[in-house]
Amino acid sequence: MSGVQETGEARLPDMKYFMVLWGIADNFGGMTTMSLHRAGAFGQAGHRATILTFDVKSSYASTVERLRAQGKLAHDTEVLNVFQYYRAAAASEVDGPKPVAVPVDDGERGLPEVVLDPEGNIYSRAFLRPDGTTVAARHFYRPDGTEFLRDETPQTRDGASKGRFLTLTDETGTARAQWRRAGDFYRFWMTQLAGGQPAAFIVDSSFAGPVVAPLDEPNIIKLMVLHNSHIGGGGDPFLGKLAMGQKPIHENSLAWDGLVFLTRKQRQDYEARFGKSTNLFTVSNPKPRSEVLPDFAARVPNRGVMVCRLEAQKNVPHAVEVMARVHQQRPLVRLDIYGTGSLRDELQSKIDALGLQDSVRLHGHTPNAAAQFETARFSLLTSRNEGQPLSLMESLGRGCPPVSYDIRYGPSDVIEDGVNGFLVPARDVAAAAERVIRLCDDDDLARRLGAAAWERSERFSNEAVLEHWARTIRTAWRQRLERLILTHLDFRLEELFYTAAGGFGIAGDILWAQQSGPAAQEILRANLVIGRRSGGAPAFFPAEVEARGPGRLGIRAEVTPDEIARDVPQDNNELDIFLQVQGNNVLKSFRVGFPGPGPSWRPYATAHASLSLKLV
């Protein structure tokens, strides 16, 4: 491995490691928890990882202290924030883009909003436009009161933008470096942190994804971890729209050395819809189990536990409905729910309306709530969709058999129905209630499933997951020289034709501009893709390359009537046509438009199978 010391495939290579978040909220969820945990696990393996953040926050000192005390942040894991970093850095030593004069701001601005640091010093002043939300300028200050950064967006008198200017200044107020986009400033910082050495940036936050994606340095690899379903609302994997937060990531997947899925099933669904590329990986989140299987005798009979946010995705109202059915037959069974969220009052009202005050209890935020699984007889998961539910892994790792909806994604990857827990169809409240009753009634069943749950959770240990990370990082590093860096990748349709046999075809040009990597025209290939509107995986048909040159592939693809109809449900009389481009890290699909400015004359078969045209 060029530039990286060989230490064996199962061990992390000797590199600099960074876990990238946008920020660390006071009450964060599973994504941030996993990022912090992974950083600590890397550190235990001898490779210190640093947490990076980009939010405008005066200090992380109290947050870091609290997280260390709670055991959520390892004592040797450093948290760096881009603004706090340059507040303490010597600006005179920063060799960044040379500054130019910032245009005069002719727009209106109000009085500044002042933010203080924990010591009472001014950290920033933000000047707002008359709308009260648009920031005209934000000035940042060192503890001694000198300015270290100005972020300005000057306007004309009529409100037209003059651009954005982020200017780093030294203690004398002299401008030392300047960037025209915030992302450029952030990427400069990351490049400086890497220091020209081999480095891996593992991004957990989809908000930070667009910042890191354009970072292209020969010593750096970038991996994006997909913590949630790539489909909005956990919809159909073949028909659903891309999740808004992840849409920019998937539409520009070729920018990444690795897209990391948490579960095998999610990656399989993704590949079945979009195709395969060399930068797709699967690495589970780590979730260490209890050192020993908790004593079954310590489990409280008839007690279940849920640990989750009280938000729509988690679908906690279904858990309440499950308990309502259980209560009708086993009134002593209760469910303790740990977590906070915007639906707490609504859930409590539902509990009260169903008369379940003694059966379902909302405990709010509880430190180390996962420990509650050690004394529970069962756990519940009724989410609408997940990436990989951490509470499910915590339940397994503490020997508490789960009753879970079989949703995308996660449960079916870790639960073998009837062996280490129960899987029931999504939204099947009756089936979930029946499994809960079985676990509460049958000591032998609950003991057996709990033991199997604990034993099988070994595959989520830090050691097991780090081996997967080591292999992924090594593969991504080896492949970095073969990564195609392309811009303006597009497909231009030149011809759509119909065959006498009833098939059809397309011809056109795939166009791009290449920045680096091996000659793309020798690597890229294309498929004609037929999507089924009523469901099911799309069908892929290889296209023939008729012309090949720098920045262009001329392609032609044709399908027969039998190929079009293969595996298409009888009630599906509409199909969608795409052109997919793939090769190495490139994986992109284009919707094929009907040629010509519409309305267009389109062919159709008459009742006597004659050819006619219809204006559509």
Description of the structure:
- By secondary structure, the chain is α/β, with parallel strands linked by helices.
- The chain folds into four domains: 16-87 and 185-282, Glycogen Phosphorylase B (Rossmann fold, 3-Layer(aba) Sandwich), CATH 3.40.50.2000; 95-180, no CATH class; 296-457, 3-Layer(aba) Sandwich (Rossmann fold); 485-615, Immunoglobulin-like (Sandwich), CATH 2.60.40.
- It is 24% helix and 28% strand.
- The protein has 15 helices and 29 strands.
- Strands 3-2-1-10-11-12-13 form a seven-stranded parallel β-sheet. A six-stranded antiparallel β-sheet has the order 4-5-6-7-8-9. A six-stranded parallel β-sheet has the order 16-15-14-17-18-19, sandwiched between helices.
- Helix 8 crosses helix 12 (429-441).
- It starts with 15 loop residues before the first strand and ends with a strand.
- The model has no long low-confidence stretch (mean pLDDT 93).
